[in-house]
Amino acid sequence: MKYKILQEEIVYDGFLKVKKATVVHDSFKGSEQVSATRETVERGDSVAVLLYETETDSLLFTNQFRYPVTKNDGGWIIELPAGKIEEGEAPQSCAKREVLEELGYEAQQLEEIYHCYLSPGGSTERIFLFYAEVTQAAKTEDGGGVETENEDIQLYRQSVHELSKTLDAGFFKDAKTLLALQWFMLRKLNDI
User: Fold this and answer.
1) Whole-angstrom distance, CA of residue 109 vs CA of residue 101
2) Has this prediction a pTM greater than 0.85?
3) All domains of the chain in start order, with CATH
4) What's the per-residue H, E or C state across the chain?
5) pLDDT of 32 over the 80 cut
6) Which of 29, 44, 95, 133 is the most buried (most CB within 10 A)?
């Protein structure tokens, strides 16, 4: 199937970019073409890392304030350490940098779980999800985020033993975190 972008413009350029486009694309009904105006958020690609700390049999997360969450919840959310991939940066390098900045751990070996679109109906952002095992000795810095970016991040530990109860209770609200935890439950839990 084919598509064509007839017109595209940036209608907002801040922390996020919003593009508006007129597109024409093939229809599932045959040769008929659909013409529509669409908007998309351009944020760039990102990474997130599910960290398993071997000695404590725990998964490590961030606890931080997220303004968009205030619309439906209290504002603070438990999620994977994550961040935006800088121009020219490899996803794995970004993942290591974010884990160090946010939680203070040096993640040496990262396993890519998969990459996916978080909200394909409204954003171009892809996220690369990784898994890493760390020891307590790998915590070489304080973490807490980057001060110049006004990050205020707290480390949150979740016992693997209690994970099923926590998931059943609906504790985790972040999609990337839920995807990684489902992967962990299906693939890794029996291995550790």
Assistant:
1) 17
2) yes
3) 3-42 (no CATH), 46-188 (3.90.79.10)
4) CCEEEEEEEEEEECCCEEEEEEEEEEECCEEEEEEEEEEEEECCCEEEEEEEECCCCEEEEEEEECHHHHHCCCCEEEECCEEECCCCCCHHHHHHHHHHHHHCECCCCEEEEEEEECCCCCECCEEEEEEEEECHHHECCCCCCCHHHCCCCEEEEEEHHHHHHHHHCCCCCCHHHHHHHHHHHHHHCCCC
5) no
6) 95
CB 127 within 8 A of CB 151: no
- For residue range 132-157, list pLDDT tens digits in order: 999 999 999 999 999 888 889 999 99
Tell me which residue has tokens 């890493």.
Answer: 132
